[in-house]
Amino acid sequence: MPAVHTLLAFAAVAALFVAVPGPSNLYVLTRGIQSGSRAAVAGAAGCATGAYVYVAATAAGLSALLASSQAVFAAIHYAGAAYLCWLGISALRSRAPDLPRAANGPRSPWRSYRQGALVELGNPKVALFFLALFPQFIHDGAGPAAVQVLILGTIFVSLGFASDSLYALGSGRLRDLLARRPRLRRRQHRATGLLYLGLGGWAAASGSD
User: What distance lies between CA 13 and its chain's CA centroid?
Assistant: First the structure.
């Protein structure tokens, strides 16, 4: 199991990531406006389920890499750092995404849940992000890599679900706020880019130990 200081550091990084609006937040926000907070929370649960599928796949893949070759695992570590830096540069160079238009959507919580899961599973960038992020917090002597990833993934997905649920419950007010203040959305978008760059730079400098 990861050390307490590793868990706290990872939780802080994860909290920063989920605090900035992303695709799942915007999906849940729109679902809340279309169908109410109950359907939106169900959609958030679907997004969390889809994300955890990627967590499990990442755990299996990283565990196999670590068992086969430390050198390959180290290469994945530095490739992940480079990918995080690239995400940061891309975010800083692009404009903040527009809010999705409100339209008729499923009011059934079960249908919203399934749609949320499909939205998350249909975004392969989630898998690439996890593959880049988790190796930075895996350490020798802290137990099997798969177990470490599952623990870290549970923290990340839980924080993401909590964030999405807040968006679901306050969807109307949040959308009005973001729609009226495009400058706020741009600042949040830049903050995401800086966060990616900072984590990527830290990972590259710290090595894989």
Answer: 11
Q: How far apart are CA 16 and CA 40, in angstroms?
A: 22
Nearest to 140 by CA among 89, 208, 193: 208
Angle between helix 37-68 and helix 145-169 axes, rounded to 10 deg: 160
> What tokens were used for 30?
């729109």
Neighbours of 107 (CB within 10 A): 13
Is the distance from CB of 37 to CB of 110 less than 8 angstroms? no
Phi and psi at residue 52, to the nearest 5°: -70, -25
Query: What CA–CA distance (Å, rounded) separates 48 from 14?
Result: 14
Residue 119 to residues 16, 116, 131, 152, 155, Cα–Cα distance (Å): 22, 5, 19, 22, 21
For the chain, list residues with pLDDT below 70.
Answer: 20-23, 63-74, 76-77, 80, 84, 87, 91, 95-107, 124, 171-193, 195-196, 199, 202-204, 206-209
Full-model pTM = 0.72
